[in-house]
Amino acid sequence: MEPRFTLTDNEIGAKFAKRFGTASLAIIQSPLPKVTQELVSLRVSQINGCGWCVDIHTKELAAAGESAVRINLVAAWREATVYTETERAALALAEEGTRVADAAPGVSDDTWESVRKHFDDDRTAALVALVAQMNSANRLAVILHQRGGSYEPGMFG
């Protein structure tokens, strides 16, 4: 399956992509730990079936020195012992925030309380923005049939 469309080859698409990328800088430059950002991005991408984004975030985690065990167990994080309570709170928010259409209450009060216990206002804002932005990025990549496999760590600077 080849990509359907290259968004950046179109004037409107290029404008959108530039602004989308600029918005991500607020998250990237936030005090939310980079490993947490990548774990959350990977989990959201797994749920959404985005091969392109799964490729990016598994490789970025590996390049950051994360073990294969931690990377491979993200899909089953609730049954794994390799994540901190803080990471578990972030992963719970990632799942519940991604599966809002599947869960009537959306993000549960328990998950929200756990997030607020582990993350200050700046980190919470970055985490919420990251979940929302990754869901958007996944949808773009899935709609356009962007395939995983060719990403090289650091490719996007």
From TrEMBL:
Which InterPro entries does the entry link to? AhpD-like (IPR029032), AhpD_core (IPR004675), CMD-like (IPR003779)
Q: Does the keyword Heme apply?
A: no
Keyword line: Oxidoreductase, Peroxidase
Picking any one GO molecular function of the record gives: peroxiredoxin activity
Q: Does the keyword Oxidoreductase apply?
A: yes
| Gene3D superfamilies according to UniProt | AhpD-like (1.20.1290.10)
Give all residue intervals belonging to the Carboxymuconolactone decarboxylase-like domain. Answer: 17-96
What is the name of the protein in this document? Alkylhydroperoxidase AhpD family core domain-containing protein
